[in-house]
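2024-03-11 09:14:02 DEBUG pipeline.ingest accepted 1 chain
2024-03-11 09:14:02 DEBUG pipeline.ingest length=71
2024-03-11 09:14:03 DEBUG pipeline.predict start
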Amino acid sequence: VVGYGKEKDSKEEKPNFEIGNCYTISEISTKFRADPSTIYLVIKKNKIPTKKVGSFVYAPKNLIDKIFAGQ
């Protein structure tokens, strides 16, 4: 079958949740001078994957930087 298995060949980057490759919400808030509630709204609106570890929520730096660089 032609094209079998090519549907997964998307250009979206996979989230990288390794230490050093993520921001916490407070780090994003400080870096981009935005209220944490605004950060959560932007993350939800742009469907950015997050990972919660304890009381911290992490988001991949590469995706956050792309979004906030355009604003």
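2024-03-11 09:14:41 DEBUG pipeline.report Confidence is low (pLDDT under 50) at residues 6-10.
2024-03-11 09:14:41 DEBUG pipeline.predict end
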